[in-house]
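Researcher: Structure for this, please.
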Amino acid sequence: MTTDNLFHSEHLPRKLNSGELGIIFNLFPQNSPHYTAYINLLKNWYICKIDSADPFKLFLCENSEVIPDDFVMPVVNIGGINIGDQFYDFTFFENSGDTVRIEISIERAVKNEYSLANWKPGDSSPFSGDLRTVEINKGEYLLLRDIAKKKLWVHDKNKSGNIILTVTSFYNSVMGVENIKDPKVAFNFDLLFSDKFGDDVLTKAFYLHAKKNKIPGIKVEIPEVTEKEKPNFWKRLFK
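Model: Predicted structure, token format:
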């Protein structure tokens, strides 16, 4: 595949061409309910602006009359693919109203291709690191940490989707669970990728994080707890 006709700024506004869509579709699972709406936006919206800085930013708009906004939204997917002797590294952001932002870095190199959206239980980490898993709510959700690359995400089994979490924000929920205020610990975010916090703490942090609407698309119910637990953490969390 040549790169001459990929993500160019001629004749804007325009829709993504077949070559561009083919690349993007390789980075998303084709039958996942979690990504269906987003993929439909990519198919049907218009490229209304391209910022040629590195990484260059591509803005898709709902119609050709929209003036794109430049808000940085949560990340939907990250992935990279080889095209000829170049490596294209993508970051896809949630839509902000009627605008979708995609960032693309291009490097003249051949690298290992990856896609977080395509990850499924049983796979190795898409980032080639040591992967740790915490099962939550009888396996309905998986909390995943790539220890070497310091990546964090949640797998939603029902929707077959992966939700990228901001490390600093989730770590703050861990600090809330443990009631830690010591700045040497509270600002040492790398501890999230150590053995300092057990599965029980990370599970409680997940529920706290979801309760604060920090995990897009996930609404949690009060988990079953023992009578001994009710007066403390869970009672405070769900009161």
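Researcher: Any notable elements?
Model: The chain has a mean pLDDT of 88. The helical segments are 18-25, 36-44, 167-178, 183-186, 199-211, 230-238.
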